Amino acid sequence: MTQKLVIAVCTAQRPKMLQACLDSLDNLIAPANTQMTIVVVENDPVPHFTGAAAEDVKKRLSLPVFFHHEKRKGIPFARNTALDAALEHAPDWVALIDDDERAEPDWIEKLLAACLEHKAEVANGPVRRIYEKPAPHWWKSQLLKPRPTGSIITEAPTNNVLLSGRIIARNGLGLRFDERLTFGSEDIDFFRRTHAAGAKMIWVDDAFVEEDIPASRVTTGRLLSRMHMAATSGAFNIVLREGRLKAALHFIPKSLRRMFFGLLATIVGFVLKPFARKRGEKLFYYGLIRLMKGSGNLRGLLGRAHNYYDVIDGH
């Protein structure tokens, strides 16, 4: 029996990156007895891929592509529109990938095979990051952590994931992204709730996608802003799930520790820089990152949004 698989991509003001992503999806090895479809959601007041632009893409690709528009600004709005768009095709499976990524030809084949072999409803794979410009020496880049395919996971991002249609279907779990989380962590929250609902989630170690990291994303300001955003959204997520009091009891002491030791490291690093530049800079920026995390946690407790995603990196 043929099963239906929909690949959903959310995008905003990055037509070149999106086209590279779609080209990679068009080169996927189709799993046996699987019908694949692509849905694209533009999260922008004025969509780019309409009319002739959309038709050009559809003619160029062999897979069917459907374009949708979500004018409300915010990642969870776009992701929910993508899930609803996917459901229009009655999918057995839905895959999510970001518009700044390119899938390996066997990406979807390996995710689906792992789900079937391990009787799982969610499969998450690794991301290779391709930097346009090297990150600063003091930045600890996110490294791939190999682990056996089939390892149980309890959360996942949306940059490389396959999920059963049952998880989002109205007559299934009916899960959606929390639209209050407009400034980050909406994907981690979604899959934590998916796990809590009883869905088996696994890691697939060889289902790769590649992510392009523009030079603008590894500037000092953007890197520190990302740390602040992640800490803000992480704390706000706990406020929503467990209440402000419980979140405050956890994050206030943690934030104060982070800010105290961050300030101390920043001062020591600053004093050390003239004598040992590289070591001093590493300690200085380690302290700034701690300060960003501590202040971000406090910001999240207050429910104050962060504007990191207001800036679009890439084209």
Any overview of this molecule?
The protein is an alpha/beta fold. The protein has two domains: 3-216, Spore Coat Polysaccharide Biosynthesis Protein SpsA, Chain A (Alpha-Beta Complex); 220-310. The chain is 43% helix and 17% strand. The chain has eight helices and ten strands. The strands form two sheets. A seven-stranded mixed beta sheet has the order 3-2-1-4-8-6-9. Strand 1 (3-11), helix 1 (15-26) and strand 2 (34-42) form a beta-alpha-beta unit. The mean pLDDT is 92.
Question: Secondary-structure blueprint of this entry?
Answer:
Layout lengths: L2 E9 L3 H12 L7 E9 L8 H10 L4 E5 L5 H13 L5 E6 L2 E3 L3 H12 L3 E3 L2 E5 L28 E5 L21 H11 L4 E3 L5 E5 L6 H23 L1 H29 L4 H25 L14
Parallel strand pairs: 1-2, 1-4, 2-3, 6-9, 7-10
Antiparallel strand pairs: 4-8, 5-10, 6-8
